[in-house]
Design goal:
This protein is of the alpha/beta class and 345 residues long. The chain has three domains: 93 residues, Udp-n-acetylmuramoylalanyl-d-glutamate--2,6- Diaminopimelate Ligase, Chain: A, domain 1, CATH 3.40.1390; 214 residues, Hexapeptide repeat proteins (UDP N-Acetylglucosamine Acyltransferase, domain 1); 26 residues. The chain contains four helices and 40 strands. The strands form six sheets. It has a twelve-stranded mixed β-sheet.
Length: 345
């Protein structure tokens, strides 16, 4: 795809300084810019690169005033970083504009497929599935029975949407994620063997959710496992049966959430966090990476450590953790001094 400075300025509502007809076809860092690429300068700490870069176009903020000549055509905007992010989104949208059913894809006769849909080769769309308008499904995906996929959603290769799963509009599900596998439910029998408890619920994913690669979101035992609107999940995350994650919460990679836990809205959860089952995590909570959570957390809580404790308590305790060897030495010296004093007496 090739764009002129004029076209890009129109998208970003920016002002051109230089050649409006110069064309670009790729994106680059400013220090690695080459002819035919577009870059941006948002932090004036890196201003020196703009005088050296070979990028054909550079997006700059209104605060930038060149101290010497710039070879590149400039597009001046209010916020260079936000403008470049907007351009990335536009570029990604253009790149994902695919349509048509590839010959090796299978779509069951009872499935309903909307307008302007792309289904890649070797994808399987099962009975009574509903695929909305402008959906993109890359090759080798599996769409189970009675699955619903909302308008504008992108499903990458290797994704499995198991039966009864519901995915909202404008979601992104990355490769090899499994949504709607059975929850981990077993009950000990009289002989001690573990017997499977049927998992007959489903998974509901609301609008504007992004789920990273190789995540697993299990179906509920009864009812639904629910991922609310705007949630963002990193790669390799496990969400167990009957969990609910509320709006706009962000979770980093390798985190595991056990069954029936409810996580509030606008939370930030670091990587490798473990959260036990049947807890209530409040709204606007922050949990440090590698924390182990085994108690409820109130709204606006900040928790560190394993088991996780209030951030302020953790920082105070850390002073003692760090100085523990010297504290022990002082105690040992004090004991020796007391013993010597006792002998003298």
């Amino acid at each position: 795809m090739e764009f002129t400075a004029l076209e890009i300025a129109s998208i970003l509502e920016g002002k051109i300084e230089g050649n409006p007809e110069v064309k670009v076809s790729t994106l680059s860092k400013i220090e690695e810019g080459s002819a035919g690429s577009i870059s941006f300068l948002s932090n004036l700490k890196y201003e020196n690169f703009i005088y050296e870069t070979n990028a054909s176009i550079v997006i700059v903020g209104e605060e930038f005033v060149p101290e010497k000549p710039v070879k590149s055509t400039l597009i001046v905007v209010k916020d260079a970083y936000k403008a470049f992010a907007k351009l990335l989104g536009y570029y990604n949208q253009m790149r994902n504009q695919k349509s048509g059913i590839e010959p090796n894809a299978f779509i069951h006769d009872s499935a309903k497929v909307g307008n302007n849909v792309y289904v890649g080769g070797f994808t399987y769309v099962s009975e009574n599935a509903v695929i909305g308008d402008n959906v993109v499904i890359y090759p080798n995906a599996y769409i189970g029975e009675n699955v619903v996929v909302g308008n504008g959603t992108i499903i990458y290769s290797g994704v499995q949407l198991c039966s009864e799963s519901k995915v909202g509009e404008n979601c992104i599900i990355h490769s090899n994620t499994v949504i709607g596998a059975d929850g981990f439910g077993f009950s000990p029998s009289a002989s001690g063997a573990m017997e499977k408890v049927p998992q007959i619920g489903n998974v509901i994913i609301e609008d504007n959710v992004e789920i990273g690669a190789a995540c697993t979101i299990d179906r509920a035992t009864l009812g639904s496992t629910i991922i609310r609107s705007g949630v963002k999940l990193d790669n390799q995350i496990q969400i167990a049966h009957n969990v609910e994650i509320k709006e706009n919460t962000v979770i980093a990679s390798q985190t595991g959430v056990a069954g029936s836990t409810k996580i509030g809205k606008n939370c930030i959860i670091g990587g490798q966090v473990g959260i036990v089952g049947h807890l209530k995590i409040g709204d606007f909570v922050q949990i440090q990476a590698q924390s182990g959570v085994n108690n409820n957390i109130p709204d606006y809580g900040k928790f560190y450590g394993s088991p996780a404790i209030e951030a302020s308590d953790f920082r105070k305790s850390y002073v003692y953790f760090r100085n523990f060897p010297s504290i022990v030495k002082r105690l040992e010296d004090l004991e020796k001094e007391i013993k010597q004093q006792t002998i003298q007496d």
